[in-house]
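Sample entry follows:

_____
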Amino acid sequence: MSGPVPTVTALSDIYTTQALADQGVRWNNLLEKFQARYGSPAQFIARSPGRVNIIGEHIDYSLYSCLPMAIAPDVIIAVSTDVAPSDEGTYKIKIANVDEQRFPAREFDIPHSEVEIDATKHEWTNYLKSGLRGALELLRKKHGPDFKPKSMQMLMDGTVPAGGGLSSSAAFVSTSALAVMVANGETDVSKKDLTEVAIVSERAVGVNSGG
């Protein structure tokens, strides 16, 4: 698990030949909807796959050994950042989903001090907030407590079935954390750091995860 999270420039570096046509349509749809919603193109797309535990289901988050395997269904988030600095004391997160009927768009003004999450409410954006919180904790350890995050615009598409034991929430949290780190200048995100952030962060929404 050493080394940085890989960066790719072609879908053929991610998906099988058989999946390329459908994935090309999906990714283009994400980018087109992002442009239509926010009025400017996305700067990058972050991605995390779902996974299955071949051995060790439900003991991974207790730090026991397991044998996970990535699967084809995934979460992708298109991202852009504001050029203008965030308002004094806060920054803005705009998050939407391609399936807006099930997952309505949200907009948050978040204080630099803390990312608040109400785990008693079953709100889809709580998973984004948990990844955001974990990523910012890591960034502040690296850059100091006065680090100020950028405002971000985000559009998500996910194909990992929710509640199917395929780590859909972990994929969402991991993608969110990765997106926040890259948006704030981290070009070489450590796989180890991202995994640890995801494990700890998902607990903020009341879910135990092995990352």
Q: What stands out?
A: The longest helix spans residues 20-38. The two ends are 12 Å apart (CA to CA). The domain at 24-205 is CATH 3.30.230.10 (Ribosomal Protein S5; domain 2).
